[in-house]
């Protein structure tokens, strides 16, 4: 149910209809625009949105889709139903072009399904083509009979070919005769030199001066405007002209016969042609919706089959288009959420602060969605479906019904309370105004209490303090405020949910320049309670800004802590692995030594027995065993090999591009590629990295060569997590990149972020036409680790930057 009847005009949807009509190619699509209706059918809304989203891709990226000859041939199809009536050549030409357009649309969709599994590339548009069964023989027949100029071809029948051939021959013979007569008359001076053969009443004639017209026998068919020249058909060519005229009549009869036969052939296919034409009308209509979506930056949000609002960066489409024409002005997007815990939003704030625009944005965007249109908001937003939409915006006072402004508001409130339920969205502008403030506020609070009990969802604009207090204390209600720069006394047009807003009436009056005494007396009359309330709201606004800055600092410190923790974890893991490896090596070596010692002891005993304990030989054997014990079994302290002194010596002088450097505390040596302020870009093998200059020490070329020689030896390569963490930035700039290059960089960036455990990433892609932005977001949706994506704050890049939130 919708209320009032003028809802579309009040929200501005009538202007959306006009924009859609302008985007249509033909009256076929425009008729569908007139049929747009609000619906609460979830399946239908979802299908309409997906059709438009698919066509949006076609408009953006496909150039092969047919974009012309969307001709309205409904009248021709109606005429074809009448027995004995033949369509004209023009009718068949329009029908031929239309059917070729339908055929091209079907071919396009079929090609996009080739080699694909599942439903193909455009399943919802393909579903539209399902009922269309276009007979290719009929299209070929039309093409065989009607040429590309819209005339019946000579080859349409043997008789027509014979007649036209004979006409050409007779016309050539006639022209030859007339040329001879014209030449003779010109020699006699009866015809001006600049005149030639012409046609009058379908017959070839010659121009003759009026004074000499009786010197040539024949019939005068016409004369010039001045009367000085007559157009005469000589008697010698009467028969030839008559013959041509008879042939032309025969040609017309044959063409009519062919067209009548073609109409009769067409008649059994009229139902199928009607479906094909309806398909073309829907295509024109859906493309108009897609073109409008691109025009206003609309997306398809996540749809829920229940009342729900979770909008991010929603914009009023008409205001967006209007400000596009004004240089330097942009729409400030709104972000809002209405759910079971906060169903009714009470918006307060100063006049001209954007409350009414915010309210109309809620109504128009929800109405557009439930009419099957994409909506201008972030694509990860969520929208629900409402059964009823009630609005009270503007003035409904009526002289006929004797309604004042306030009476009209109360009439609307009566309708709201009667029809409101859990699937209702109501919008009320300037709630309670139009009568004495005390009484108006009390009645408004009572109505609000009743609407809250109904379980309805809603948005209300008000200046009444009692409603702000009531919202703060009542479950299901939540306060919101249009932000205001209290320092410069300028509206920011930003909706902030969770706190009430001040009207800033006294501050604005002071800025305008009202006398200070008037303002002070106003404060006294207002009372300390109200003044303190307004002052408290103002102070809270300032405190919120301070805490927002503190939150940024805390976030930075948390990231530093996470970095240090990752470094510690990586180092501990490395040391544990090295310790385990050393212990394993020592155990293996000890085991081998014990085995060898046992073997030698056994051999010694056997040799002693064999020589029957000869003392001299026994002494020699014992000496050999002692030597083995000293060499192999006693622990040996091995000092680390001393490295050349110059390997650790730093070269002198400041570090510049081309110098060889080593990161302090590490053995890896690289070369400086460039110096950027306090950072240096260095190359270590195939790895490039940015490192602070104060962490680098300069080394000699000899040290660099020796280090490179070592790295060229085949060995297992490890990964320095500390270095990666140190040089990793959560901000990636891909502006100016081609699509393929950007995706490769995004993948590398995302892999590093996952490995290092970053909770939030920032990708700068620029605004432009939004192509790179859509490409990146579509690609990132494939990662299950992505929780959601959103635009950056307007002050820090807005839609030109995507913030990626990772799952915990």
UniProtKB/TrEMBL annotation:
InterPro entries (alphabetical): DNA_mismatch_repair_MutS_C, DNA_mismatch_repair_MutS_core, DNA_mismatch_repair_MutS_sf, MSSS, MutS, MutS2, P-loop_NTPase, Smr_dom
Claim: S-adenosyl-L-methionine is one of the keywords in the record: no
Record-listed ATP binding positions: 349-356
GO biological process: mismatch repair; negative regulation of DNA recombination; rescue of stalled ribosome
Domain Smr: 732-807
Keywords in alphabetical order: ATP-binding, Coiled coil, DNA-binding, Endonuclease, Hydrolase, Nuclease, Nucleotide-binding, RNA-binding, rRNA-binding
Gene3D superfamilies associated with the record: 3.30.1370.110, P-loop containing nucleotide triphosphate hydrolases
The enzyme's E.C. designation: 3.1.-.-, 3.6.4.-
One of the record's GO molecular function terms: ATP-dependent DNA damage sensor activity
Coiled coil: 519-614
Highest taxon, organism lineage: Bacteria
Family in the record: Belongs to the DNA mismatch repair MutS family. MutS2 subfamily.
General function of this protein: Acts as a ribosome collision sensor, splitting the ribosome into its 2 subunits. Detects stalled/collided 70S ribosomes which it binds and splits by an ATP-hydrolysis driven conformational change. Acts upstream of the ribosome quality control system (RQC), a ribosome-associated complex that mediates the extraction of incompletely synthesized nascent chains from stalled ribosomes and their subsequent degradation. Probably generates substrates for RQC.
Subunit structure comment from the entry: Homodimer. Binds to stalled ribosomes, contacting rRNA.
Protein name per its UniProtKB record: Endonuclease MutS2
Organism: Rudanella paleaurantiibacter
């Amino acid at each position: 149910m919708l209320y009032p009847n003028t809802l579309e005009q009040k929200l501005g949807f009538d202007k959306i209809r006009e924009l859609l009509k302008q985007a249509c190619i033909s009256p076929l699509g425009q008729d569908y625009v007139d049929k747009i209706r609000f619906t609460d059918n979830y399946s239908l809304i979802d299908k309409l949105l997906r059709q438009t989203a698919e066509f949006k891709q076609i408009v953006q990226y496909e150039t092969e889709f047919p974009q012309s000859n969307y001709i309205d041939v409904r009248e021709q199809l109606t005429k074809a139903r009448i027995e004995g009536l033949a369509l004209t050549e023009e009718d068949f030409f329009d029908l031929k072009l239309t059917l070729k357009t339908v055929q091209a649309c079907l071919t396009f969709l079929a090609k996009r399904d080739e080699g694909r599994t599942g439903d193909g590339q455009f399943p919802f548009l393909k579903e539209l083509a399902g009922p269309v069964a276009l007979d290719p023989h009929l299209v070929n027949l039309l093409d065989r009979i009607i040429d590309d100029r819209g005339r019946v071809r000579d080859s349409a029948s043997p008789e027509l070919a014979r007649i036209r051939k004979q006409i050409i021959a007779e016309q050539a013979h006639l022209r030859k005769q007339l040329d001879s007569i014209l030449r003779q008359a010109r020699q006699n001076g009866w015809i001006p030199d600049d005149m030639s053969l012409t046609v009058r009443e379908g017959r070839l004639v010659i121009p003759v001066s009026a004074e000499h017209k009786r010197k040539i026998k024949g019939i005068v068919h016409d004369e010039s405007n001045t009367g000085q020249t007559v157009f005469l058909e000589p008697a010698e060519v009467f028969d030839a002209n008559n013959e041509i005229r008879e042939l032309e009549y025969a040609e017309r009869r044959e063409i009519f016969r062919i067209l009548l036969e073609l109409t009769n052939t067409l008649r059994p296919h009229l139902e199928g042609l009607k479906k094909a034409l309806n398909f073309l009308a829907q295509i024109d209509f859906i493309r108009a919706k897609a073109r409008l979506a691109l025009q206003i930056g609309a997306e398809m949000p996540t749809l829920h089959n229940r009342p729900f609002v979770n909008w991010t960066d929603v914009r009023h489409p008409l205001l967006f288009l209007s400000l596009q024409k004004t240089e330097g002005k942009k729409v400030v997007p709104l972000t809002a959420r209405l759910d079971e815990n906060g169903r009714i939003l009470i918006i307060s704030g100063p006049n001209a602060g954007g409350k009414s625009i915010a309210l109309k944005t809620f109504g128009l965007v929800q109405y557009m969605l439930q009419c099957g249109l994409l909506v201008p908001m972030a694509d990860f937003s969520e929208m629900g479906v409402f059964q009823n939409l009630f609005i009270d915006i503007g003035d409904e006072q009526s002289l006929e019904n004797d309604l004042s402004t306030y009476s009209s508001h109360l009439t609307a409130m009566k309708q709201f309370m009667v029809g409101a339920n859990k699937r209702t969205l109501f919008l009320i502008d300037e709630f309670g105004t139009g009568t004495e403030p005390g009484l108006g506020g009390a009645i408004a609070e009572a109505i609000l209490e009743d609407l809250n009990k109904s379980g309805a969802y809603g948005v209300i604009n008000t200046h009444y303090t009692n409603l702000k207090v009531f919202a703060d204390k009542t479950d299901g209600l939540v306060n919101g405020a249009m932000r205001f720069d209290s320092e410069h006394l300028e509206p920011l047009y930003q909706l902030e949910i969770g706190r009430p807003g001040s009207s800033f009436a006294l501050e604005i009056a002071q800025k305008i320049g009202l006398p200070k005494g008037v303002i002070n007396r106003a404060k006294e009359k207002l009372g300390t309670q109200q003044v303190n309330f307004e002052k408290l709201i103002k102070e809270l606004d300032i405190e919120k800004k301070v805490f927002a800055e503190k939150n940024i600092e805390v976030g930075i410190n948390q990231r530093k802590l996470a970095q240090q923790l990752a470094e510690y974890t990586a180092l501990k893991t490395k040391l544990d692995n090295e310790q385990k490896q050393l212990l394993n090596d020592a155990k293996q070596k000890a085991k081998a030594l014990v085995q060898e010692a046992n073997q030698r002891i056994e051999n010694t005993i056997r040799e002693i027995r064999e020589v029957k304990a000869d003392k001299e030989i026994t002494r020699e054997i014992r000496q050999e065993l002692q030597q083995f014990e000293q060499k192999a079994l006693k622990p040996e302290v091995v000092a680390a090999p001393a490295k050349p002194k110059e390997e650790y010596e730093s070269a002198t002088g400041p570090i510049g591009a081309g110098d060889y450097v080593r990161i302090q505390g590490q053995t890896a040596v690289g070369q400086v590629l460039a110096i950027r302020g306090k950072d240096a870009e260095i190359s270590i093998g195939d790895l490039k990295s940015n490192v602070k200059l104060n962490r680098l020490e300069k080394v000699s070329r000899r040290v660099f060569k020796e280090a490179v020689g070592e790295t060229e030896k085949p060995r297992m390569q490890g990964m320095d997590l500390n270095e990666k963490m140190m040089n990793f930035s959560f901000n990636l700039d891909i502006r100016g990149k081609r699509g393929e290059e950007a995706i490769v960089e995004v993948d590398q960036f995302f892999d590093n972020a996952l490995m290092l455990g970053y909770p939030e990433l920032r990708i700068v892609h620029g605004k432009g036409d939004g192509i790179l932005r859509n490409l990146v977001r579509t690609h990132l949706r494939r990662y299950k680790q992505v929780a959601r994506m959103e635009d950056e704050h307007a002050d820090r890049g807005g839609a030109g930057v995507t913030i990626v939130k990772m799952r915990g």
